[in-house]
Design a protein that fits this description.
By secondary structure, the chain is of the alpha+beta class. Helices cover 51% and strands 13% of the residues. Helix 11 crosses helix 12.
């Protein structure tokens, strides 16, 4: 590239108050990526690609990467120069490897699309460009994969594909302008975007880069134990089946369960074959030992392949830690997800799952602290419904499930049995999410008439909840969306009025569920932002936020500040949002994640 072009753009970027930029890397995993170049755009239709690594034998050769990074660093770290990106968290993480602390992070088109309610499967830049700008971006895969000799991006002759590097920055800028014009007219979701989703990007990047410390030896021993367990379960399954078969093959399981043993077909796959999914096996396991063994085998095998075998291989060679990736735009309710590895799906109720958590350890002189919101969704439904019974139970700090059991089963609070409390818990969580009598009966192992009776008693005692449920359905049908307490919207314009009863009922359940799950998600996100701001003020930093799992935050805290930190974390989390009922956070401490539960 001509150095004059580079210096001209440096001058423009230094003067710019806002610009879009994207990175070209050799890998989509930020922890293994090598930076190949930058794309910048200040005005629509005007963009540049600055290569810093290119192995093409043809000109133009890349600029000196050290010189480029040195000159771009003050621009990228200038907080007053606002940056626009698409999945800008990836940019933050990659640039951090090169000693650049990206600041002025203002807009992310992926998040703008998300809060506007666009189809979650269409929020990548190519699909957004087609949707908002009616523009098709050059297909990079076609460029890279031409002919028999496939090329990586750093081997492409950029002179032959001049628009390849610049397109993404230009499209990112134009997408932002198109979506921001819509967002500005909807105050509630603009506030969600500006006060929650964008600030959270920096927080999640910090958590990802901090990573989690793992004891590989514990996982290795657990893996050996799981191997023995799987072998024992396989032998047991072969005896029950009367022959050996592949317990990991749905087709072979179908033949054994349905063709040979003639078990009842509860559900079929889209192709018409008898299903062997977890829901079906769980029902069959109530009456058929082989189905129970297969279900247990699957659970143990998944734990082994997903965690005990895989986690040690994911330890970063430099940091010595595992670095997951958190995603803000996957769920419809606003809840976060994680991948590579998924730290939110480790079982907590099984001994095997707890053994995996034992491998998540604190470094020397630190302890693991977990802070978990207590019954947050039930507290939210109490606030939303203003039901007097629920409000009174929380105000008096009663065990909400015991209180419900006492109401439904008409027994004194101090005489509620463990089984009655278990049933009340299923009712509390089930009914506020629109569970049918059939589903509740299946959950509790009772008749449908009994389940209907329990539901009737519940809504008699907590009439405010029933009123809220009816109101939520009506609002969703009227507006085509339902909102959380903070203003986040779940859009249901088509399915809520669908003539298909199954689709309509599903949308109605979502309309009831979303304000609770979405509000819970926004509460913990706000807490994460507040805690991050508090941690950033520490010098030296003696508290690290290392994981977010559902309603729980996990920290590494230095022993010298453990008590003051616990109280500060609790206070920040409990004051994240003001509700009619108080938010409660349970904090525990241990040398590993399991012990802190």
């Amino acid at each position: 590239m001509d150095k004059h072009i580079f210096f001209d753009w440096l001058q423009q970027l230094n003067k710019a108050t806002i610009f879009s930029f994207t990175l070209k890397t050799n890998d989509l995993n930020a922890w293994h990526s090598k930076l190949l170049g930058f794309s910048f755009a200040i005005l629509p239709g005007e963009a540049v690609y600055l290569p810093v690594l290119n192995d093409s034998l043809k000109k133009p050769k890349p600029l000196d990467h050290i010189d480029v990074l040195e000159k771009l660093k003050p621009i990228l770290e200038n907080e007053k120069a606002l940056k626009i990106g698409t999945n800008i968290k990836f940019n933050i993480n990659v640039l951090a490897h090169y000693g650049i602390n990206l600041r002025g992070i203002a807009y992310d088109t992926m998040l703008e699309s998300y809060v506007l309610g666009d189809d979650k499967s269409h929020n990548d830049i190519n699909k957004l460009a087609n949707q908002y700008l009616h523009h098709k971006i050059d297909d990079s895969e076609k460029i890279i994969n031409q002919g028999h000799n496939k090329l990586t991006f750093n081997q492409i002759n950029i002179a032959q594909t001049p628009s390849y590097g610049t397109n993404t920055a230009d499209i990112t800028l134009r997408l932002h302008l198109a979506m921001w014009s819509k967002l500005q007219n909807i105050g509630e979701i603009r506030k969600v975007f500006s006060e929650i989703d964008m600030p959270l990007v920096t927080v999640l990047s910090y958590i990802e880069r901090t990573g989690v410390l793992i004891d590989s030896a514990i996982l290795w021993m657990h893996s050996q134990s799981l191997t023995e367990t799987l072998n024992t379960l396989a032998i047991k399954a072969y005896k029950l089946a009367g022959e050996p078969f592949n317990l990991s093959s749905p087709q072979q399981i179908q033949k054994i369960l349905y063709d040979k043993q003639k078990l009842p077909v509860i559900k079929k796959t889209p192709r018409g074959a008898p299903s062997t999914n977890e829901e079906v096996l769980t029902q069959l396991a109530l009456h058929y030992p082989l189905a129970k063994v297969i279900l247990e085998y699957r659970s143990q095998a998944k734990l082994k392949t997903t965690y005990t075998d895989k986690l040690p291989l994911m330890i970063h060679p430099i940091s010595g830690r595992i670095h997951t990736s958190y995603h803000q735009t996957v769920t419809t309710t606003g809840r976060l997800t994680s991948s590579n590895p998924n730290l939110q799906n480790i079982p907590i109720r099984t001994s095997e799952g707890r053994r995996v958590r034992q491998a998540f350890i604190a470094p020397k002189n630190y302890l693991i602290v977990t802070a978990d919101y207590s019954q947050i969704e039930l507290r939210i439904i109490a606030h939303l419904s203003q039901d007097l019974g629920l409000l009174a139970a929380f105000a008096e700090e009663k065990d909400i499930h015991c209180a419900t059991a006492a109401e439904i089963f008409n027994v004194p609070l101090n005489q509620v049995s463990r089984e009655q409390r278990r049933s009340a818990k299923a009712i509390n969580f089930g009914l506020i999410y629109g569970m049918s009598p059939f589903s509740l009966a299946k959950r509790l192992g009772i008749t449908q008439n009994e389940a209907q009776h329990y539901m009737h008693r519940y809504f008699q005692r907590y009439s405010g909840v029933l009123t809220y449920i009816k109101h939520a359905r009506q609002q969703a049908a009227k507006n085509g969306y339902i909102s959380t307490l903070g203003g986040r919207r779940l859009y249901l314009p088509k399915v809520i009025s669908s003539s298909n009863r199954m689709h309509r009922k599903s949308a109605e359940r979502a309309a009831i569920n979303a304000p609770m799950q979405g509000t819970a998600a926004d509460i913990i996100k706000r807490a994460m932002i507040d805690i991050y701001d508090w941690i950033a003020q520490q010098n030296p930093p003696l508290v690290r936020m290392i994981m977010q799992v559902h309603d729980e935050l996990v920290f590494e805290v230095h022993e010298s500040v453990i008590h003051v930190s616990v109280e500060k974390i609790r206070k920040l989390m409990e004051n994240s949002m003001s509700l009619t009922v108080s938010l409660k956070v349970e904090v525990k401490i241990g040398i590993n994640w399991d012990e802190a539960h």
